[in-house]
Every structure is written in C-alpha cells, then in structure tokens.
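Hey, can you fold this one?
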Amino acid sequence: MQTVLFHETIFGPIHSRRLGISLGINLMPNDGKICSFDCVYCEAGYNAQGQGTTGVPTRKEVQSRLNAKLSAMRAAGEKLDVITFSGNGEPTLHPNFKEIVHDVLLLRNKYYPEAKVTVLSNATMASRKTVADALRTVDNNVLKLDSALSHTLRLINQPKSVNVQAEGIIEDLKQFSGSCIVQTLMLRGEHNGQRIDNTTDTEVEALIAAYLAIRPREVMLYSIDRRTPEEHLEKVPREELEAIARRIEAAGITVQVN
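Sure. Predicted structure:
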C-alpha cells in the first residue's frame, strides 16, 4: 500500500509546483493518517493504514515548533513563499484548528510578513462556523472540488460519511464567494472495477456550473504528479488540461493550470 507520510509536525521547506517554497504544517499524527476523504490519488495513501500512535499535536506544540523553525530560517536568510497546512489528512479536523491558524498568522507576521498562509482542505468541515471563520483569515483558502456530480465525487474522494454529496460541498463553498480558491484534480482510470473519469463533457459542464455558483478567486486545475495508492489511474496531459481550462475561462472564471 502507498504510504508516504510526513513524520514531523513542521516539515520542509519544500518546493510546491502550485505555491512555491512552502513550509508545511501537519496537524495530523506523524505516524498515521486521519482524513474525512480517502481519495484514490492521495500521495499519503489510504486511511486503512491507520491513525498511528502519536495522536494530533497540541496547539502549544505547533506554536513552539513553528516558532523555532521560522526563527532558524530567518537567521539563515532562507526564502519562504508560503506556510501551508497540509500533511497526513484533513487539517480542519484538528479540534483547535481556528486557534492554531491564529497562532500561525502571528508567527508569519513576526518572521516572514511577506509569506502567504495557505490551507489545503477538502471542504468537508467548511459548514462548521469555527472552521469557516478561520479559513476566512488566511491568504489562500484552497478548497477541493474534484467533481460536481456526487457519483463521481464519491468514486474519486471516497468520503467516510455517506451524507457527503457534491451539492452540499458546493453549497458550503458558496459562503467563501470571491475569496476561496477551488482546487480540482483531473484524472481517468479505474478503482474497484469502476471507471473514473472527471474529464468528460458532462463532468466539465457540471464543474463549470459549480464554479459559477461558487465564484472562487480562481480555480487550480491539475492532474496526478506522484505515485498514487490506486495503481490504475491516468495522468491527464497538460494540453488537455489547458483545453478544459479554456472552457472554464470562457465562462468568466480565472484558471491556473499546474
């Protein structure tokens, strides 16, 4: 089974193809995965590998470790473009997510005021007020929408809750109109004998309708770049991504192809 976990609460910096030089914050265990989705393409592997034994870091631990890392980086003259909430699962599941975001913003302002704070989220917790309030305070509120059709979304993202539907996620994203970034991964392939393809005309048209309802700051369109836990997936060529992007842009939505 594919398991590429981050074994530190603060990791990197690494070079992100979408965000630049990024220092990561992992609010999930250092030896396991906790996520409300179980995406077929997740580089951290499937949730079946377990939640590990370390538990989630405390607010104080995150603050202390980030302070030490940023202080050392600044003293060494290192460059930093972004501080990114990512890691071994869904960051907004942390019980102190809002407070940790507040701490991170203060430390960013102290050491790297020019850097952006980014949250990569699957949006399943966006209906929770404390989470939504925190997401409104960051520079880049990046929320996942891989399909606007529930059947396809459930095939790709495999939500743990049977109640998760594309319509509900779209409705939750609408509250961030004009400020959020929607991240959509395009792919084709097969999982458990079922065909997956969110690049069809029907899928793209549904996504465009969803983007128009959400009105994001921009859409990040990309495809598989690393090994995935599901082996039978196909990377969508850049030329095809750009063709899909042109259709989205024709509807008046800003698109970044990565």
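Helices lie at 59-75, 97-111, 129-135, 150-157, 166-173, 201-214, 238-250. Let me know if you want another pass with a different chain boundary.
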